[in-house]
């Protein structure tokens, strides 16, 4: 059997999915895509999992599609055809997903970062939309990247393919935080600890609310949001949270 390229571990409600194919810079090969998909599905289905962390081994987070596999393949045989389903799993996961980058991300790797809810990078990490420089288009990843980026930055970086730093990635909205490498794990833990304080159903509903399009009719929007708010105030999680607040105790979902 082929050596596993993506590892899965759960500790204290946090599922860590680790890309482990450093020999090809964690490129999105056929095997890596399949294992990543399977682990994302496992995390989604496990009620014990509260938060997902997408991490990596080696110096590179993810270099994008595996160009060795792409060479000589026709359009309908390209691995990129499977990529939208992976990005959609990350984007629509009912559990919050945190990307942890100790090194560079390129092309499809940046799409993975953008699909996560929160992204933390070492300040030495770099990014690039390198597609145009090899004659392809950053089309699939644009679905997750463009909602994150400032429009001017998106035009500049998509068209030039220029490499940019983690601090700039934070400034234009691609990542949440750029920290010294020795603080990376502490920063990831800071976010996962905060996310674990949220009620599972409330987190899932909030993620759905954040990504759904809204009507231009303000009255319709208020009516929809009122229904959502009232339903959760009166629901089991809302009532437990209110009772816990009144009793000055942790709610049932909060970690010990």
TrEMBL record:
CDD domains: crotonase-like (cd06558). Pfam families: ECH_1 (PF00378). It comes from the Bacteria. InterPro entries: ClpP/crotonase-like_dom_sf, Enoyl-CoA_hydra/iso, Enoyl-CoA_hydra_C, Enoyl-CoA_Hydratase/Isomerase. Gene3D superfamilies: 2-enoyl-CoA Hydratase, Chain A, domain 1, Lyase 2-enoyl-coa Hydratase, Chain A, domain 2. Belongs to the enoyl-CoA hydratase/isomerase family. This is Enoyl-CoA hydratase-related protein. It comes from Saccharothrix xinjiangensis. The lineage of its organism: Bacteria, Bacillati, Actinomycetota, Actinomycetes, Pseudonocardiales.
């Amino acid at each position: 059997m082929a050596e596993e390229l993506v590892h899965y571990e759960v500790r204290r409600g946090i599922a860590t999915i680790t890309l482990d194919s450093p020999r090809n810079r964690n490129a999105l090969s056929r095997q890596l895509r399949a294992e990543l998909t399977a682990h994302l599905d496992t995390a989604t289905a496990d009620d014990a999992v509260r938060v997902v962390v997408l991490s990596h081994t080696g110096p590179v987070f993810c270099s994008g599609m595996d160009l060795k596999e792409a060479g000589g393949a026709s359009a309908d045989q390209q691995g990129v055809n499977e990529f939208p389903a992976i990005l959609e799993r990350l984007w629509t996961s009912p559990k919050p997903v945190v990307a942890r980058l100790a090194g560079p991300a390129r092309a499809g790797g940046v799409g993975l970062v953008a699909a996560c809810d929160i992204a933390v990078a070492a300040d030495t990490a770099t990014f690039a939309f390198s597609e145009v420089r090899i004659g392809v288009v950053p089309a699939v990843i644009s679905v997750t990247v463009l909602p994150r980026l400032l429009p001017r930055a998106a035009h500049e970086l998509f068209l030039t393919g220029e490499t940019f730093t983690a601090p700039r990635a934070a400034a234009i909205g691609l990542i949440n935080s750029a920290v010294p490498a020795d603080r990376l794990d502490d920063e990831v833990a800071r976010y996962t600890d905060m996310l674990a304080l949220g009620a599972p159903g409330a987190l899932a509903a909030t993620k759905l609310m954040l990504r759904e399009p809204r009507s231009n009719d303000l009255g319709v929007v208020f009516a929809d949001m009122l229904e959502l708010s009232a339903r959760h105030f009166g629901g089991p999680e809302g009532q437990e949270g209110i009772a816990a607040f009144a009793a000055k105790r942790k709610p049932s979902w909060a970690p010990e």
